[in-house]
Amino acid sequence: MSSSFLPLSEEMFQARSVSVDLNNDASLLIDIPDALCERDKVKFTVHTKTTLGTFQKPEFSVSRQHEDFIWLHDTLVETEEYAGLIIPPAPPKPDFESPREKMHKLGEGEASMTKEEYAKMKQELEAEYLAVFKKTVQVHEIFLQRLSSHPVFSKDRNFQIFLEYDQDLSVRRKNAKEMFGGFFKNMVKTADEVLISGTKEVDEFFDQEKTFLLDYFSKIKDATSKAEKMTRSHKNVADDYIHVSATLNSLSAEDSTPLKHLEKLADLFEKLRKVEGRVASDQELKLTELLRYYMRDIQAAKDLLYRRARALADYENANKALDKARLKSKDVAQAQQHQQQCLQKFDTLSESGKKELTSFKGRRVLAFRKNLIEMAELEIKHAKSNMALLQGCVELLKSN
Amino acid sequence: MTGRGAADSLLPAPSFAPSVIQWRSKMAAERDTPPLGSAAAGLADFREPEDGEDLFVSTASTLESSPSSPEPASLQVEDVSANSNGPKTAEILIDDDQDDLFAEATEEVSLDSPEREPILSDGPSPAITPVTPTALISNRIEPKVIGVPSMFERSLDEVEEEAGGDLFDINISVSDPEKVGDGMNAYMAYKVTTKTSLTIFNQSEFSVKRRFSDFLGLHSKLASKYMHIGYIVPPAPEKSIVGMTKVKVGKEDLSSTEFVEKRRSALERYLMRTVKHPTLIQDPDVIQFLESSELPRAVSTQALSGAGILRMVNKAADAVNKMTIKMNESDAWFEEKQQQFENLDQQLRKLHASVEALVCHRKELSVNTASFARSAAMLGNSEDHTALSRALSQLAEVEEKIDQLHQEQAYADFYLFSELLGDYVRLITAVKGVFDQRMKTWSKWQDAQVMLQKKREAEAKLHLANKPDKLQQAKDEIKEWEGKVQQGERDFEQISKTIRKEVGRFEKERVKDFKVVIIKYLESLVHTQQQLIKYWEAFLPEAKAIA
């Protein structure tokens, strides 16, 4: 497969990666400078700076909840005009389940630990909580930034409302129809999957894309979950170092014999676990998050294919209807018009779809490249720190 | 004329006296025709040099009680001259057994003072086993254990320097586990190889085949002979019904291979600790265990045998006694030390548990990394962009190598760190046991005093009642109990002295042992990091090549 791609526009051509700054177009700059966590609810402060006349003010902030982002995403999906575009994937729900569970367990095990140990574990957990928090802010931010840097989406009316409307959006959200619409959407999706795998694809480009995307999606989904497990194990090892360090400390404090090196060892393990913790979190950010994000993005690309497949089905049905009309010599003009509309829709979809998918590949390749390089560099850096710490301690022990 | 031969004084000495050689051949002759008969008597004959008991008694009383007493000049000059006794200045025999993790770790032993106390047991000890001098040299069988990576071996030069010339010239390796027999009667036979220049042994290098129950038998004998007089006898590795059953049944899977390796390693450490003890290495049972080709099966070590049940009963009785004996501790040192060991016990157990958790998690990490590697390979195959596809495949390869690394590190976590802690948890139990024995000895002494008092009172009564015939008997009994009280006091003082020395030796050993093993463990961690750097540095250009 060739690695060249046609940019849809300058803005889209920019190096798109999970962690690269998408906020390059000065005409519309969005960021989430802070967020509040209240029990289960996270409240994001969405800050916009713009030179566009379509907005009332040049700079403003609103408070949004996760559900508001979902509403925005869903409206984009349901907009007909966007059928030929890859809709940026909706950010996942903030999930504090893991650190919360760990915090609970820690509370239960408090009695069996020293005060110091408990404090360290708590510190570790707070850091984890913070990491989850940062991640969710980032992923919500990226969603908005992908919209703002897209020539079509940035002009979307609902997007503007989302950014500007200074009241609570919940009224709009709780529309019963929309809730039902969501359910209907899911049902249709499964039908689409059957559709997409069944239809004969005449266009070679789309045929290849279809095969590729379907296969790739399942592989990347698997890779994501395996990477998650791996990262979690890494964190467990780092946590164990805390316990080892703490016990070594108690040992060296109580031991009257000249086992000075126990103290040094305790210190070493404390330093090591910080490095190991960084290894785990860097791996998570550069590898697991990367895979996770592109898994969702590929789903969005698949959705584009579904929509195109549906448009094709509509066109084929319109063709059949036209033939029937011609046979019956009834409502031919109407049928013909409908058929033309379907064809046009399908062609537009195909054309923009092609562009989107090509640039998507470019985006993906660049993102992987950036993150894999960064991960390798970080791994080397951390391994070198570890080695320096360890060798220092070995020297110290040997010289005694 | 030397009393005990080369092994007694383990200080480096320039040369052997000819008398040593004479004595040695006499000992060898004696050993070939061991006395059969009552255990205690047999032992006495076996071990008694020309000079007899006197040597030991006077020796005992002149030894200082401080744990780090140097070679006492006050020792019997008639039989010992420090200069004539030692082994040749040590040549460390490099053990090139690839499976032996602890080859280097066990070279050093510091000897504070040679032991000259009697090794005669007061209590019952198992019968001397007959020795049939048939040579048994088995061909070295290819080890069937997991290849524990050779990254844990390091040069002996550093070890020698550390020890500063204070070396105990014996090295033992346990290797070549071999399954003998079938079904539930099957067992593993281990090759025990001794390399030494100590002259208490017949050769400088020799091997025998032993099974697990033989080791337990040895420990049982040593414990019954030495623990009640205050010696810290290293505990034998634990039995495992589950582990052994798997091996017997013939499960050739990873867990039974690991079990065998774990046991082999534990047996080796056990033997090395035992022979490092200056008193125990001279024990005939130890020598026989290492040297003689046949040992009768130690059936009394089976859990459900008569002896096994007796052991359990005794243990229970001891526990009850411990609760009821309230000793007036006059010596603050003992109280302090006991508390220290109690604390140390708790801390070590906790640390052991943490390290075991670490081993577990590291193994998990290895498994999960392997799983991710496979997944990344699949992803790479699916990727249609050529350069990215290649990079993903490379990533998969790197992760696969890393999973191996994690697995090796888990082995190091376990065999170096975790097992060390486990050994010391068990050792401390033995130390605590020795303190309990002192209490028992004290209690026996007190009981004797009480009895003496009773007998005196009885005699006084008889005096008043004027019964001359019974009076003589009473007087005899008083004499008997006076003797027992004296003996009790002597025993108590002796065991206290021994314990002080033993504890001192134990603490010194512990520091050295930990240091050596910890350094080795840290070096394994260093190695892992080095490899990680290597792998990621190789991967980096691949990632950069994505275009």
Question: Could you characterize what this model shows?
Answer:
Chain A: Residues 1-169 form the PX domain. Chain A: One of its GO terms (biological process) is protein transport. Chain A: Keywords: Protein transport, Transport. Chain A: It comes from Scleropages formosus. The complex is a heterodimer of chains A (400) and B (547). Chain A is mainly alpha-helical and 400 residues long. Chain A has helices at 10-13, 66-78, 97-108, 115-148, 157-164, 170-173, 176-198, 204-254, 260-328, 332-399; strands at residues 28-38, 41-50, 59-65. In chain A, α4 (115-148) runs antiparallel to α8 (204-254) and α7 packs across α9 (260-328). The longest helix of chain A is centred in the last third of the chain and has 69 residues, at 260-328. Chain A is elongated. Chain A starts with 9 loop residues before the first helix and ends with a helix. The model of chain A is unreliable at 1-19 (pLDDT under 50). Chain B is built from 13 helices and three strands. Chain B has helices spanning 18-32, 39-47, 53-62, 82-85, 156-163, 212-226, 241-249, 254-276, 284-291, 306-324, 332-382, 386-465, 468-544, and strands at residues 170-180, 187-196, 205-211. A three-stranded antiparallel beta sheet of chain B has the order 1-2-3. In chain B, α12 (386-465) runs antiparallel to α13 (468-544). Classes of the chains: A mainly alpha (400), B mainly alpha (547). At the A-B interface, α8, α9 and α10 of A face α11, α12 and α13 of B.
